[in-house]
Amino acid sequence: MQWVVEARSLTKTLDGRMVLENVTITVPPGTIHAVAGANGAGKTTLLRIFAGLYDASAGECRVLAERMHTGATALRQRVHLVAADLTLPRGMTVAEYARYASLLYERWDPERWRRLREALELPLRRPLRHLSYGMQMQLRLALALSARPEVLLLDEPTVGLDPVVRRQFLQLLLEEAAASGVTIVVASHQLDELERMADHLTVLYRGRVVVTGSLDELKQSLVRLTVRGLRALPDALAGHPGVWTWSPARVGLTVMVRAQAAGDVTAALRTAGAEQIVEEQDIPLDELFRLWMEREGYRRDTVALASRGDV
Ligand SMILES: Nc1ncnc2c1ncn2[C@@H]1O[C@H](COP(=O)(O)OP(=O)(O)OP(=O)(O)O)[C@@H](O)[C@H]1O
């Protein structure tokens, strides 16, 4: 398989701290690969390495079958990063900036730019400093798509967009992706959006890969058993490799189980006295994400905002 983006044992140290550790990810052509993870997990750093803005400290990063690094200027014509923290020239108008981009990018498509700016209603004569945050993100995306990249890297693309624009933005992105065959890597905390658009998913935690693979396969990897008639996991299942987690529920207990072990675990629960077991597949991504994070030891206790005596 010729991967479009290929990271092998990638490590990145920033300020003496390892922010990516031994990350291996492969992205096939024309697919959408989602990157999720807790705050500070290393998503932005990873995309910056893919975009050639950072060099990896160790390991290999190949994009479009070439080594990506900060000196790979020709390759960067074919790979675009859309991110809110990349500054825009505040003094230029939308039209001026688009003209500048058209000169900068060899594959610029004026017809595509016209369609996108009309669809997104971008105000051509407005200076960039007067664009709202959401409009700036839309402008970034429109410019990136107009440059006809082969790889599009999106870092939190829908933050700050209202729900109507967010929907339109995603729709447009999916249509453009289908029409152009661009390969997309998107980092986001919006798991519902990732679930709708992505083919593959990588979850990072503290710079390491927790899970990576086809989204469908990852979603099918766990099932939920809702068990009546038991209040705790039977001893026979303690330490069972097929049991992911369990917790008491209103009517009994909930057990998250690896799909391949569901039959064995169900049989053991029945032997231990379970009265009724309901099996659910297709667990929503946000729930899976929470389970993966908890498994890594990621827990945030609720912070008491009101101090004693204030309420
Ligand atoms: N230039 C830098 N120098 C030192 N540390 C950095 C630098 N940039 C990022 N970091 C640290 O690297 C880690 C990963 O940051 P990164 O921005 O890649 O995470 P992220 O997953 O995108 O986070 P978030 O979801 O909060 O945006 C964080 O602990 C961050 O503080």
What does this structure look like?
By secondary structure, this protein is an alpha/beta fold. The chain folds into two domains: 5-217, Rossmann fold; 221-280, Lrp/AsnC effector binding domain/regulation of amino acid metabolism (RAM) domain (Alpha-Beta Plaits, 2-Layer Sandwich). The protein is 31% helix and 28% strand. It is built from nine helices and 14 strands. The protein has helices at 43-50, 94-104, 110-119, 133-146, 163-180, 191-197, 215-220, 262-271, 285-295; strands at 5-14, 17-27, 32-37, 58-63, 66-67, 79-83, 151-155, 183-187, 200-205, 208-214, 222-228, 243-248, 252-258, 276-280. The strands form three sheets. The protein has a six-stranded mixed sheet with strand order 6-7-8-3-9-10, with helices on both faces. The chain has a four-stranded antiparallel sheet with strand order 2-1-4-5, with helices on one face. A four-stranded antiparallel sheet has the order 12-13-11-14. Helix 5 (163-180) links the parallel strand 7 and strand 8 (183-187). Helix 3 (110-119) packs antiparallel against helix 4. It is elongated, with a radius of gyration of 23 Å. It binds adenosine-5'-triphosphate. Adenosine-5'-triphosphate binds at residues 14-15, 17, 19, 37, 39-45.
